[in-house]
Specification:
This protein is mainly α. The chain has a domain at 23-133: Arc Repressor Mutant, subunit A. Helix content is 59%, strand content 7%. The protein has helices spanning 23-44, 52-62, 67-74, 78-90, 112-133, 138-163; strands spanning 65-66, 94-98, 106-110. It has a 3-stranded antiparallel beta sheet. α2 (52-62) packs across α3, α2 packs across α5 (112-133) and α3 crosses α4. The longest helix is centred in the last third of the chain and has 26 residues, at 138-163. The chain is globular and about 55 Å long. It starts with 22 loop residues before the first helix and ends in a 10-residue tail after the last helix. Keywords: DNA-binding, Transcription, Transcription regulation. This is MarR family winged helix-turn-helix transcriptional regulator. Residues 21-153 form the HTH marR-type domain. InterPro entries: HTH_MarR-typ, MarR/SlyA-like, Tscrpt_reg_MarR-type_CS, WH-like_DNA-bd_sf, WH_DNA-bd_sf.
């Protein structure tokens, strides 16, 4: 009898010797991987792939918007956003229309079919939140969120700094 393959989940707390100087980074990697895996399983129930729900969330909240702005809000590059929009359009959840004010821009809007999807996505995100937060108290949930926001701020600042070209005569010269 064939059974569906179960994803291999490593024991928590395992820290390779090479990662000993970055235990928080290693934990983030493990948590993000498991989160994406569970989100993917839940999203398959409604016919979506991970990150497509993030695009839809932006469109449901903001309505019609330029594809470039949508990519910026979601944090995706142009090529990834183009592929995502094509897949969502093929599924009937979005429609692309040319901008009347800027002939180079394409506007993306949610379709009526996507509105039925919204409640399902909200429900599965609530389930995912329950999986993530588990038995955390309200105070622990708040603390966790605050720490994650600080980590995101730190990473965003480092990413901005890495994008800045080295200045002549600066420390990298």
């Amino acid at each position: 009898m064939e059974t569906e393959a179960t994803p291999q989940v490593p024991e928590t707390g395992e820290l390779p010797e090479a990662a000993r100087r970055g235990p928080i980074s290693h934990a983030i990697f493990r948590v993000a991987r498991l989160h994406r895996m569970l989100a993917g399983q839940l999203l398959r129930e409604v016919g979506l792939h991970p990150a497509q729900e993030l695009v839809m969330m932006q469109l449901w909240d903001r309505g019609r918007m330029r594809q470039t702005d949508l990519a910026r809000h979601v944090g995706a590059d142009a090529a990834t956003m183009t592929r995502t929009i094509q897949r969502l359009e093929k599924a009937g959840f979005v429609r692309r229309v040319p901008s009347t004010s800027d002939k180079r821009s394409v506007l993306v809007e949610p379709t009526a079919a996507s509105q039925a999807l919204r409640q399902q996505v909200e429900n599965l995100w609530a389930r995912l939140e329950d999986y993530v937060a588990g038995d955390l108290t309200d105070a622990e949930r708040g603390e966790s969120l605050a720490v994650l926001e600080r980590l995101e701020t730190n990473l965003a600042a480092s990413a901005r700094d890495a994008d800045q070209p080295a200045r002549p005569g600066g420390p990298d010269a």
